């Protein structure tokens, strides 16, 4: 039996996830690819397997998920949270271990909104005096240095 749980897409939360977790032999599929092919960086793979290793259930669950939006790290965080919630639903005894590891807490940070009459976030024009000082220092080094 597979549990399908769509992650709620809250304001600012870009990565959304639909997945299934069931007891099995450790298969991990992300967007129809093996997770080590979809996430080539070792840090991301380790983060995905951390809920299993903390609860000592590595290789006992099959995970199939579809994730979209956000960056790679955001997708890893969404999958990790979804796995932890599904494991807690299947086996409520795992909740204290998952809670103490911080796997059931959603990252509350969101992208800052764009302010009017500025670039992205709060870009400002560079200060002209700083530019002139750096040019003077560069000129001094080229003329005074042998």
TrEMBL record:
Keywords: Ribonucleoprotein, Ribosomal protein. Pfam families: Ribosomal_S9. Belongs to the universal ribosomal protein uS9 family. PANTHER family: RIBOSOMAL PROTEIN S9 (PTHR21569), SMALL RIBOSOMAL SUBUNIT PROTEIN US9M (PTHR21569:SF1). This is 30S ribosomal protein S9, chloroplastic. It comes from Salix suchowensis. The lineage of its organism: Eukaryota, Viridiplantae, Streptophyta, Embryophyta, Tracheophyta.
């Amino acid at each position: 039996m597979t549990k399908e749980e769509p992650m709620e897409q809250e304001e600012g939360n870009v990565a959304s996830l639909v997945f299934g977790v069931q007891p099995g032999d450790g298969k991990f599929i992300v967007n129809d690819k093996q997770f080590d092919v979809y996430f080539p960086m070792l840090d991301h793979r380790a983060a995905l397997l951390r809920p299993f290793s903390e609860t000592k259930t590595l290789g006992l669950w099959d995970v199939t998920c579809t994730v979209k939006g956000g960056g790679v790290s955001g997708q890893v965080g969404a999958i990790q949270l979804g796995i932890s919630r599904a494991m807690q639903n299947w086996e409520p005894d795992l909740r204290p271990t998952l809670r103490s590891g911080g796997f059931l807490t959603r990252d509350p940070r969101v992208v800052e909104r764009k302010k009017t009459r500025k670039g992205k976030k709060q870009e400002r024009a560079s200060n002209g005096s700083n530019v002139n000082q750096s040019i003077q220092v560069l000129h001094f080094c080229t003329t005074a240095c042998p």
